[in-house]
Automatic annotation (TrEMBL), chains A, B:
<comment type="subunit">
    <text>Homodimer.</text>
</comment>
<dbReference type="GO" id="GO:0005737">
    <property type="term" value="C:cytoplasm"/>
</dbReference>
<dbReference type="GO" id="GO:0045936">
    <property type="term" value="P:negative regulation of phosphate metabolic process"/>
</dbReference>
<feature type="domain" description="PhoU">
    <location>
        <begin position="23"/>
        <end position="111"/>
    </location>
</feature>
<comment type="function">
    <text>Plays a role in the regulation of phosphate uptake.</text>
</comment>
<dbReference type="GO" id="GO:0030643">
    <property type="term" value="P:intracellular phosphate ion homeostasis"/>
</dbReference>
<dbReference type="InterPro" id="IPR028366">
    <property type="entry name" value="PhoU"/>
</dbReference>
<dbReference type="InterPro" id="IPR038078">
    <property type="entry name" value="PhoU-like_sf"/>
</dbReference>
<protein>
    <recommendedName>
        <fullName>Phosphate-specific transport system accessory protein PhoU</fullName>
    </recommendedName>
</protein>
<feature type="domain" description="PhoU">
    <location>
        <begin position="129"/>
        <end position="213"/>
    </location>
</feature>
<comment type="similarity">
    <text>Belongs to the PhoU family.</text>
</comment>
<feature type="coiled-coil region">
    <location>
        <begin position="45"/>
        <end position="72"/>
    </location>
</feature>
<keyword id="KW-0592">Phosphate transport</keyword>
<dbReference type="InterPro" id="IPR026022">
    <property type="entry name" value="PhoU_dom"/>
</dbReference>
<keyword id="KW-0963">Cytoplasm</keyword>
<dbReference type="Pfam" id="PF01895">
    <property type="entry name" value="PhoU"/>
</dbReference>
<keyword id="KW-0175">Coiled coil</keyword>
Length: 233, 233
């Protein structure tokens, strides 16, 4: 970022600071949303699940605010080269965080379907909460990497995506086996399958942000071997 | 859009035309990808599925090209107000189309898992191809709405999303019932569940684009009742 003394440069730095603050705020809400959705899921807490759904509107509202700010910054400051790329990156990262929030909301929506009244209580996947924590941690860490503009931290986030994919593969197999053996709860377990898939997608999106952070910090694309590729399960 | 005679205005119109052409190209590829992935699925054609996966890189490459063009247009032309919003909208629409391409790729990835060698041939969901066609049609129609800047056509796309959600709900129930009765094929059918979910998500994204088209054409947000809300299944 430029450090010039001109009025417009200082104003631009303030704008960028504001964009970054909005992204941190969105990211904090998204991380919390994943944790709360997973808590609601393990407790069968429909009220908490409902709160996660409501709070998603806050994330959407911040994204809309950020978008307006981006348009204003570009129109007023006419940023060039690196500065412009940083503004565009903020727009893209915000869109990804909004999607992460949607995945948390989707998990929350499934809580009442999984713990439906009169239905058998199911508690088949002991490692699902650990998977949820890893996904939330990746979101947390990639936002730290973004704040610190730290390409090494971004690489570390990407590497953890493989662990998340392994979690998913293992949970997929466990759930399918469970369905084979417990046909009464197949519908509930199918929803759990989507929960695991949503968490796996959260990891993919954290990885996407990490790649953008890396690119913004180094001007180069992250090597393919660092990024990992999502499985098809 | 402005129709002034100045050199820079004409150049800007050309840029916008180029952005729109790139979006049409991406959209055409995404629509084709959905159709091909669904064809590969019904035929059990692993080769065609593989081609869909390869072609997704083209969509990604066009998005990257569009992004560079956006940065160049903003830097060179310093567009204001409506023009700037149109440029930002192109960036956002391209990102959504890229995601639609990813869903088609994800369907293609599941073809060999659903039609695994030595596994039972399953053919449980006769309405899945119709759902695929509806999703592809929505992508086609929303791109037409974008080209024509037609807010009424955008509303029609959103209304069809409800039909897609109904397809999904029906397929979800059919597949769960099938799993209950055929435990040997649960893993394959679980993949079909994800295929249906991917198509449902394609519809959501077509709806997102339709909302952007509507906003760009009218300056107003589409009324909530027109947009439909995705189910949680």
């Amino acid at each position: 970022m430029s450090t010039g003394q001109e009025h417009t440069v200082k104003a631009f730095d303030q704008d960028i600071g504001q964009l970054r603050a909005l992204i941190s705020q969105m990211g904090g809400l998204a991380e919390q949303a994943i944790e709360d959705a997973m808590l609601a899921l393990s407790r069968g807490d429909a009220e908490l699940a409902n709160e996660v759904r409501k709070k998603d509107k806050q994330i959407d509202a911040i994204e809309a605010e950020l978008e307006k700010l981006v348009v204003r910054v570009i129109a007023l400051r006419a940023p060039m080269a690196d500065d412009l790329r940083e503004v565009i990156a903020a727009l893209k990262i915000a869109a990804v965080i909004e999607r992460i929030g949607d995945y948390a909301k989707n998990i929350a929506k499934r809580v009442p379907l999984i713990h439906a009244e009169g239905e058998e209580r199911i508690d088949v996947v002991s490692i699902l909460p650990s998977m949820g924590q890893l996904a939330a941690d990746m979101v947390h860490d990639v936002l730290d990497a973004y704040s610190a503009r730290d390409p090494e931290a971004a690489i570390r986030v990407c590497k953890r995506d493989n662990a998340l994919d392994d979690f998913y593969d293992s949970i997929f197999r466990t759930l399918v086996t469970y369905m084979v053996e417990n046909s009464r709860t197949i519908s509930q377990v199918a929803h759990l399958l989507f929960v695991a898939k949503n968490l796996e997608r959260v990891g993919d999106h954290a990885t996407n942000v990490a790649e953008m952070v890396y690119f913004a910090a180094t001007g180069e694309y992250m090597a393919e071997r660092e990024t990992g590729e999502a499985g098809a399960n």
